[in-house]
C-alpha cells in the first residue's frame, strides 16, 4: 500500500471532477448514525450478513467438532478435511467480486443470492456427503467455503458502500459488520445448544436455513447498485 497505492488518480479530468465534489459538508456522529439507520436497504444487507455469519461460524467454529463426533475421527483428521474450506473461500472472495462487475454491471445482489441458495443446498447435502469418502468431502467443503466467503466479502464492504447515503460509506459498512458479528455470536452459541439438545443433523439444517432465509432477504434488493451511464464531464474554460 505504501509503495504502490497512488494518493490520487493521474488523469487530469478525474482530478478536476474530484476537486469539484470534494470539500462538501462533514457530518457529525449523530447525523451519520441517523442517515445510516434510516436506510432500509442497509437493514436488509445487515440482516443477510447476520444470517450468513451464523452459518459461516457454524462451519468454521464447530465443523471440526462435528466431524469428530459424527465420524468418530481424530481431531487431526477432521482438521485436515476442513483445511480446504478457506481455500474455497479465497476463490469465492475473488471470483464473486469479479462476477458482479463482469456479468451483472456492478449489481452485487444476484451473485450474493445465487451463492447463498447454493450454500443452503450444499449444507443440506453435507451430512450425507461426509460419509462418502475423503475426496467428495473435501470437494464439498471447498464449494461451501466458496459460497460462504464469496457473498461475505460483498456484504461486508462493497454492497454497503453502494447503498450508503450522503457520504456515510464508512458508517454503513460499520453498521452492517456490527450486525454480522452479532449474528456470528448468536449463531455460535445457538449451534452448541442445538447440537447438544437435538443432535448435529438439526444443527446443520439450521445453518442451511440461515443461508436460505438470507438469500430471500437480499433478493429484495435485486437491482440495487446498477450502474448508470456516466454523464460527460464539463471542462472549465482555461
Describe this structure in words.
This protein is mainly alpha-helical. It has a single domain, classed as Up-down Bundle (Growth Hormone, Chain: A). It is built from 9 helices and no strands. The longest helix is centred in the N-terminal third of the chain and has 32 residues. It is globular.
Based on Cα principal axes, name the global outline: globular
Radius of gyration: 21 Å
CATH homologous group name: MFS general substrate transporter like domains
What is the top-level CATH class? Mainly Alpha
Can you write the helix and strand succession as a string? HHHHHHHHH
| Main sheet characteristics | none
Q: Which segments are poorly predicted (pLDDT under 50) over 5 or more consecutive residues?
A: 17-22, 228-235
* Structural class estimated from helices and strands: mainly alpha
User: Which CATH architecture?
Assistant: Up-down Bundle
**Percent helix:** over 70%
Which band does the percent of strand residues land in?
A: under 5%
Q: How far is the N terminus from the C terminus?
A: 35 Å
Number of helices: 9
Task: Give the CATH topology.
Answer: Growth Hormone, Chain: A
Structural domain count:
1
Name the average pLDDT: 85
Number-wise, the strands total: 0
Fill in the keyword field for this structure.
0% strand; Growth Hormone, Chain: A; mainly alpha
Short structural description:
The protein has 238 residues and is mainly alpha-helical. Helices cover 75% and strands 0% of the residues.
Topology record:
Elements: H1 12-21, H2 29-37, H3 40-71, H4 75-82, H5 84-103, H6 109-129, H7 134-163, H8 169-198, H9 200-218
Helix pairs in contact: 3-4, 3-7, 3-8, 3-9, 5-7, 6-7, 6-9, 7-8, 8-9
